[in-house]
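Exam prep: given the inputs below (a chain plus manganese (II) ion), describe the expected output before reading on.
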Amino acid sequence: MIIHLPKNISRACVQEYADKLGALCMEKPDYFVLISNHTVKNVPAELQEIAIGHWSFATDMQLSSREYYPNTHRVAIGDTYIGGDGKNQLMIAGPCAVESREQIEQSCQMLKEQGIRVLRAGCYKPRTSPYTFRGLGEDGLKLLAEMREKYGLLIATEMRDATHADKVVEYADIVQVGAKAMYDHGLLTAAGQSGKPVILKRGFGSTLQELVNCADFIMSCGNEQVILCERGIRSFETNTRFTLDLCGVAWLKEHCNLPIILDPSHAMGYAYGIADLARACTAMGVDGLLIETHPCPECAQSDAAQQLNHRQFAEMYASLQPIAAAVGKTLV
Ligand code: PEP
Ligand code: MN
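Solution:
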């Protein structure tokens, strides 16, 4: 249950109510927010007179639920935004990982030519095998910071674990919590306290309910700038890397108040399917796409098979324009 209390009560007094209820307490400019788990269905007697609003829920999807906040949260992305009136579709693109100055510089040049604002590239890669490239770490973050200066791009990059969460928060404009890290509560807290937009990727074995619960974790730390990312779930199918869950996206659009982006690259796992999927996602009116593209995909040190080369990326991007316009979206 979420209860709003007025600001004329002292913070200490609100904390006492929260403790009695076993609730979290957040302070907003105009009111306090108490959040207890969804099994609490009624406002306690002592708060009935003073509560200025209350909502009960069927599950612990609370802060991220449209029952609580019926609109979509607007998330600022540099000089633009996603969510809010839902008019924009953001392109987040770049290689899987930062590999070298030359590689990331070529990526930035292509993004600039295409008019794209957000560069994505990982420096701490969560790999399936310990014998594969795990990213350049802080050296990679420094390269990304240089590229931001030189090309004016925003940087989206991921936290793999708590050992470098503060570093990623320091360098990133948008913090990514990866699919394998979705349940890492240390990372969810760091993302919640970062004050930056957060891309929360759905774990490939996670239900929608588990995803939105993790979004609530971040939001309950006071950060409402959460962007959900569907990146494919594991099904019985093995010919594609994962299965892009578009039904799940429809469910999220109906029930969750956060912008949603899709990552066809990790879902498909092969470059040949990405453009079709990107067009399908655009037709669904999603808030953004995350696409892996590399100046030389066959040389890539991670996710080589799924990265588009720059020509493929430009063709795919151009083909999205009329579809976006048909569903009332502007590509940003
Ligand atoms: C990535 O975005 O490069 C990545 C590792 O994705 P995921 O966490 O979805 O596997
Ligand atoms: Mn990748």
